[in-house]
């Protein structure tokens, strides 16, 4: 079903979603109330209600042209997965009826043996099961009703990203409610985190994409020299959007709006051909589903426009990569944003406690935040000279920083008339959003009433980040609640605890320029902050005892699940790089070297022809260039062989950790070495011979 151009946005917004409006209209009051209770409060759903919901869902979906349904889930690698079943069921008269039961809605059993499980599910026991997540609305994609689900093994272990995400939200809810109770907020029933992910991407033409094996096989260019014009003029950022891109964005918005996704902002980014899309924030698990869907639809709509949407973190060397900003906040079902400074002294004390919980969480679990965003692709941004660095730090802004300093030292805060910041007594100054939002280099920035975590790669699922963030903050809150619940004098205990947090964790606060080399030195040498440059460096630390203790105590992961995730993520890292290495070898040997040879042969022929005309012509140009090309070709042959050997040697690694280290230390190094002579050759080889569209073609090709 397509939106008719005559329809206004409010008319077609969410038309493909089985949302609250549809539920209200199509379910009996009793069924609706019961389902609402499940959605809002996590109440158990009985099969009678499930049957009624399933039947209403089927009628609605069939009326919208759907013939199939699928349990839609998020496996550990890849964007999303689905297996389609049709609604049809034979009727006694030889025809069919469209059927869909409550049982089919609640639970599915995909044959999922080929999804990564990291050893959790023996292959002979191929089946896992999917379980409906009623808090995320079902929707129609093409002719299929998609039911958002969690994906588990028969032993109950999570095989997906949604299950631990939901568990982490529960953990944070539980601990935050304890804290709120201490502050006298008795009527809050539920605390949730919200996320607004800002998504960056590149658009290039399909025609050029097809000509580059590196883009087709790996999503990024493995060769290519800088174009004469890059991003140095800063003329693309927020610049006028080109007509073809505008048409793409228009259709993308329409498709997203039909799915109830609140796509809100779109603009050009820093690099040529780079753009950004941001939705209005939503509850974390819904925001996660929506971001996965957004990435999928971005690629689909691009194909319709003869374009390719690149979600890779670093499609072009020397040009800004693509990230994703995870804007995150905590709020109550009564509508209070707990990361927003309040109006009264009491609200402010509560705000400062939640703020401290985040500061403590980020410092204690820097490693978890880093590894939540670790992929081979994102290593090109975080480990390199690009924003943000691999070192996690928090930006608070000068004002808030001054408040914390005043509390820590019991000194007057200059912004107030009072002599001391006494919690629960003094009103905090109003923070100016402009001063909190200015620092664009910080990995984790306070932006007035939310935190913006900027280390995510453009292709990352936001689930992993939010699992770690929610859990780590739940842990801080738990420690606070344990202490405060037993305190004789609440206010004194609160004050002391906030002071202690600031003292113990101020090393993670950094308000300067995160791109500076001197910062990395200070962070690692003076402050003892972690600097895991690659996936191979950080991923094994998931299993550090403190991380296992924290995540298992909040029941976010079991130890077996954590082990399987390390295996899967490292395997994914290794496979990604091996595919890149093999693609490089093939391109170098079968296309780049022959192109160089072809051009050299033409030059030699030209020189010979000139000599035949006049033997005294020096042919210095041809001679010099033939020599240069010939040397480069030799070097390419040597480097390609070395890379090949490095890949073959991986077979000797005894385990996945050793293999990932070999990838980091030898394969990636050899890849960089092979790239050098190839890029050098591109600079001096006639365009007529060069087998690929150049960076200039790719980056400035969409008009
Ligand atoms: P910008 O970063 O361009 O200044 P904003 O900071 O206003 O824009 O918004 C960026 C993203 O943050 C958007 O997706 C927005 O919906 C989201 N956002 C705004 N407020 C919150 C909040 N309280 N919690 C979570 N996300 C939020
Ligand atoms: Mg922002």
Describe the structure.
The protein has 703 residues and is α+β, with helices and mostly antiparallel strands. It has three domains: 151 residues, Roll (Ubiquitin-like (UB roll)), CATH 3.10.20; 379 residues, 2-Layer Sandwich (Creatine Kinase, Chain A, domain 2); 127 residues, Four Helix Bundle (Hemerythrin (Met), subunit A) (Up-down Bundle). Helices cover 49% and strands 13% of the residues. The chain is built from 24 helices and 17 strands. The strands form three sheets. Strands 9, 10, 11, 12, 13, 14, 15, 16 and 17 form a nine-stranded mixed beta sheet that branches. Helix 6 runs parallel beside helix 16 and helix 22 packs antiparallel against helix 23. The protein starts with 8 loop residues before the first helix and ends with a helix. 47% of the residues are buried. The mean pLDDT is 91. Adenosine-5'-diphosphate (ADP) binds next to strand 9, strand 11 and strand 14.
Defining key terms:
binds adenosine-5'-diphosphate; Creatine Kinase, Chain A, domain 2; alpha+beta; 24 helices; nine-stranded mixed sheet; binds magnesium ion; 3 domains; globular; Ubiquitin-like (UB roll); Four Helix Bundle (Hemerythrin (Met), subunit A); 703 residues; single chain; 49% helix
């Amino acid at each position: 079903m397509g939106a008719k151009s005559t329809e206004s946005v409010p008319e077609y917004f969410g038309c493909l979603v089985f949302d609250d409006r549809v539920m209200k209209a199509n379910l009996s009051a009793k069924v609706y109330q019961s389902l609402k209770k499940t959605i809002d409060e996590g109440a158990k759903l009985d099969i009678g209600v499930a049957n009624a919901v399933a039947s209403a869902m089927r009628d609605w979906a069939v009326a919208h042209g759907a013939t199939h349904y699928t349990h839609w889930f998020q496996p550990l690698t890849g964007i999303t997965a689905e297996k389609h079943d049709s609604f049809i069921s034979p009727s006694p008269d030889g025809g069919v009826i469209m059927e869909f039961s409550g049982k089919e809605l609640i639970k599915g059993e995909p044959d999922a043996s080929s999804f990564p499980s990291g050893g959790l599910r023996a292959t002979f026991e191929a089946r896992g099961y999917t379980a409906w997540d009623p808090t995320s609305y079902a929707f129609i994609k093409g002719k299929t009703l998609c039911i958002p689900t969690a994906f588990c093994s028969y032993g109950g272990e999570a095989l997906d990203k949604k299950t631990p995400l939901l568990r982490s939200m529960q953990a944070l809810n539980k601990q935050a409610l304890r804290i709120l109770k201490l502050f006298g907020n008795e009527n809050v029933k539920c605390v949730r985190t919200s996320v607004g992910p800002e998504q960056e991407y590149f658009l290039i033409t399909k025609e050029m994409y097809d000509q580059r094996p590196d883009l087709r096989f790996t999503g990024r260019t493995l060769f290519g020299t800088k174009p004469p014009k890059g991003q140095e003029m800063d003329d693309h950022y927020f610049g006028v959007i080109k007509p073809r891109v505008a048409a793409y964005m228009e259709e993308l918005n329409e498709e997203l709006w039909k799915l109830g996704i609140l796509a809100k902002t779109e603009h050009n980014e820093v690099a040529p051909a780079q753009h950004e899309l941001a939705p209005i924030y939503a509850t974390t698990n819904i925001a996660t589903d929506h971001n996965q869907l957004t990435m999928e639809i971005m690629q689909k709509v691009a194909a319709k426009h003869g374009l390719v949407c690149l979600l890779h973190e670093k499609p072009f060397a020397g040009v800004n990569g693509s990230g994703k900003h995870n804007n995150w906040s905590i709020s109550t079902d009564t509508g209070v944003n707990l990361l927003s400074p309040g109006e009264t002294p009491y609200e402010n004390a509560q705000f400062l406690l939640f703020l401290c919980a985040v500061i403590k969480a980020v410092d204690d679990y820097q490693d978890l935040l880093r590894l939540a965003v670790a992929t081979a692709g994102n290593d090109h941004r975080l480990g390199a000279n690009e924003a943000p660095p691999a070192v996690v730090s928090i930006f608070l802004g000068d004002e808030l920083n001054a408040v914390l300093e005043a509390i820590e030292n019991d000194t007057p805060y200059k912004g107030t008339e009072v002599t001391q910041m006494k919690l629960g007594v003094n009103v905090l100054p109003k923070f100016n959003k402009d001063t909190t939002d200015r620092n664009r280099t910080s990995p984790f920035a306070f932006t007035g009433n939310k935190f913006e975590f900027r280390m995510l790669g453009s292709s990352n699922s936001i689930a992993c980040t939010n699992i770690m963030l929610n859990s780590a903050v739940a842990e801080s809150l738990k420690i606070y609640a344990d202490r405060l619940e037993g305190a004789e004098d609440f206010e004194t205990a609160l004050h002391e605890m906030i002071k202690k947090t600031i003292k113990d964790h101020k090393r993670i606060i950094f308000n300067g320029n995160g791109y500076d080399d001197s910062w990395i030195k200070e962070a690692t040498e003076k402050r003892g902050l972690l600097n895991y440059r690659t996936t191979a460096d950080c991923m094994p630390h998931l299993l550090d005892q403190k991380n296992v203790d924290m995540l298992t105590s909040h029941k976010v992961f079991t130890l077996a699940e954590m082990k399987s995730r390390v295996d899967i993520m490292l395997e994914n890292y290794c496979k990604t790089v091996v595919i890149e290495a093999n693609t490089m070898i093939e391109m170098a040997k079968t296309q780049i070297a022959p192109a160089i040879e072809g051009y050299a042969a033409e030059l030699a022929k030209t020189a010979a022809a000139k000599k035949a005309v006049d033997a005294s012509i020096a042919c210095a140009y041809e001679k010099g260039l033939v020599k240069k090309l010939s040397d480069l070709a030799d070097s390419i042959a040597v480097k390609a062989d070395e890379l090949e050997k490095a890949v073959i040697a991986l077979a000797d690694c005894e385990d996945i950790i050793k293999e990932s280290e070999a990838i980091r230390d030898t394969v990636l190094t050899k890849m960089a070495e092979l790239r050098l002579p190839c890029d050098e050759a591109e600079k001096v080889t006639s365009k007529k011979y060069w087998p690929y569209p150049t960076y200039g073609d790719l980056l400035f090709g969409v008009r």
